[in-house]
Amino acid sequence: MGLLLGDIAPDFDAETNEGKINFHDWIGDNWVVFFSHPADYTPVCTTELGYTAKLKDEFAKR
Length: 62
Hints:
Layout: E1 13-16, E2 19-22, H1 23-27, H2 43-54, H3 56-61
Antiparallel strand pairs: 1-2
């Protein structure tokens, strides 16, 4: 079953482009958007990922 809005995501450790993180420590009290693209590197997925990246400043303001 997937996560729903307001659910608490499981904690995990991950290697990222910001170094190793612990998910719950990294997010603190902030909201998080999990972005999934099941058809990697198809035109639709790359377009959606690029558009979402452009919204980073808008998400940061909230």
